[in-house]
Amino acid sequence: MTPVDNTVEPENLAQLIKRIEDEYNVSQSDIARAIDKAPATVNSWFHGKRRPKVDALRALHRAYPKFSEDRIFAAAERAAPGPLDVDAEARLLDLFRGLTEDQQKSKLIEMSALNEANKR
Question: Coil, strand or helix: which one is 51?
């Protein structure tokens, strides 16, 4: 499998979906099946009526790996969530455990709000 050039000019989601269709010789319905979404959902993304959520964008990358996750997220006008390795996760948990109960509650509210904002 030859990777697609990910250094092309910025594209919108409709252009990206079209490139996936062309590169993989698939239809929007095929794309929808590959990422466990309804064809109408992919069509609404194509026409700019809805924006895909983070999990759908990651599923697109897994199903069509010639297109980088960064490129897919950029086309959807979303920032790609950063990677979190095991050491970083353990460090975050250690830091969290060092907070008071009130501080932990505050951080949970803050992180939940940030996470929700990223899903929109």
Answer: coil
Task: Name residues whose C-beta falls within 8 Å of residue 38's C-beta, 6 or more positions apart in sequence.
Answer: 32
Compute the half-sphere exposure of residue 18: CA atoms within 13 Å on the CB side of its CA. 7
Question: Residue 24: how many CB atoms within 10 A of its CB?
Answer: 16
Biggest CA–CA distance in the chain, Å, is 55
Rg (CA), the chain: 18
The pLDDT mean for the chain works out to 89
Q: At 9, is the secondary structure helix, strand, or coil?
A: coil
What would the pLDDT profile of 64-94 be if each residue is shown by its tens digit? 999 999 999 999 998 887 777 889 889 999 9
